[in-house]
Amino acid sequence: MKTKSYLIFAFLFSLSILSAKTPLTDEAKSIAELNYLAGLESDNEGLRGSSAYFLGEINSSKAVIPLMRLLRNDESECVRTVAALSLIKLKDARGVYLVKKAIEFNDSEKVRDRCERFYAAFLLDERAKKIESDIEQFAGVFK
Predict the structure, then answer these.
(1) What number of CA atoms fall less than 13 Å from residue 59's CA on the CB side?
(2) Which of 50, 75, 96, 126 makes the best surface tag, with the fewest CB within 10 Å?
(3) pLDDT of res. 9
(4) pLDDT, tens digit, 9 for 90 and up, residues 93-122
């Protein structure tokens, strides 16, 4: 019963965050972050997965190590995939490196495939930012 109540609370809290028209206050983000981090430890696969996803959405730097643990050890392919996605969103070098390594070493073909796609998207995004920066510098020469 306690797990079910926690799941309902986390779901409703997530909906309130997504429907908010104003950015989260630091206090609200901190509370959400603590709840999502606790959700990663749940026995409920759906709660672990949604918590992993929302930690990426709120850009939680505290989530890097727990998400890395999920990517390496969780029994659910879905949870491992969401953990990889959030690690890429967080852009922490340790997490990105683990996603890159999961392309070769994860025991699930599905997880390896998703990690490869997430990592490729990350590299394209980083390259696009570099090109944009180069263009701005080049344009500045002619001002």
Answers:
(1) 4
(2) 75
(3) 55
(4) 999 999 999 999 999 999 999 999 999 999
